[in-house]
């Protein structure tokens, strides 16, 4: 969506080949900046990979993330927990720190999740990491505002994407989750991308510290029964 809006997009991935393939698909002047966002030693070179090409860094989208299967507390290893925290939270912190050092205005958009806004049983790693990303968004926004850098977050709900397959077991689970969404369907990556592009645009020039759910009404629903049942649920 950012490339379609005219941005030159630098695509990060842990591995160079997927990053280069994604940049090639975007076309234009888009390019790859591979590197491990969980490494302090790698974060600044990733940003330098943009600046050294003669580009200003106007936008940072912290969308590197890993999902984790829903695991009961007794079965979740500290190593698995730490891996999710490192990628989803530490990665966003380190990249924001490196980017803020060179940004002269612009915005940072963090990808949180509705799992960080409400409690999901057995989401002790993913949900906790995304809740922390929400607070990181607010602390960064309040500090960087005077430097003309806006910081916001999107909180996707259930999105039809490979990551969802890690978190649910089968199509029956997917159908049950879709019934919990007032709009009655899963979202698309494009729908999240449009909101990210909006937050990066001048149309959002007075928005900072905000967390915008892109969830089909998931967070708004609080009644019993399926949210998308014809006629609505009974109270």
How would you describe this protein?
The protein has a domain at 58-214: NAD(P)-binding Rossmann-like Domain (Rossmann fold, 3-Layer(aba) Sandwich), CATH 3.40.50.720. The chain contains 7 helices and 6 strands; from the N terminus they run E-H-E-H-E-H-E-H-E-H-H-H-E. The chain has helices at 16-26, 40-51, 78-100, 126-144, 162-167, 171-179, 189-200, and strands at residues 10-11, 31-32, 59-62, 106-111, 149-156, 211-214. The strands form 2 sheets. It has a 4-stranded parallel beta sheet, sandwiched between helices. A two-stranded parallel ribbon has the order 1-2. Helix 2 (40-51) packs parallel to helix 3 and helix 3 packs parallel to helix 4. It is α/β, with parallel strands linked by helices and 235 residues long. The chain starts with 9 loop residues before the first strand and ends in a 21-residue tail after the last strand.
Keywords:
alpha/beta; Rossmann fold; 235 residues; single chain; 7 helices
Largest sheet: 4 strands, parallel
Q: How would you sum up the global shape?
A: globular
Secondary-structure class: alpha/beta
> For this structure, what is the CATH class of the domain at 58-214?
Alpha Beta
Uncertain runs with pLDDT below 50, 5 residues or more? Answer: none
Distance between the termini: 40 Å
CATH superfamily of the domain at 58-214: NAD(P)-binding Rossmann-like Domain
Mean pLDDT: 92
- The CATH architecture designation of the domain at 58-214 is 3-Layer(aba) Sandwich
Number of helices: 7
Question: The CATH topology of the domain at 58-214 is what?
Answer: Rossmann fold
- Find the count of extended strands (DSSP E, 2+ residues): 6
Fraction of residues in β-strands: 5-15%
Q: Topology as H/E string?
A: EHEHEHEHEHHHE
Order of strands across the main sheet: 3-4-5-6
DSSP helix fraction: 25-40%
Global Rg: 18 Å
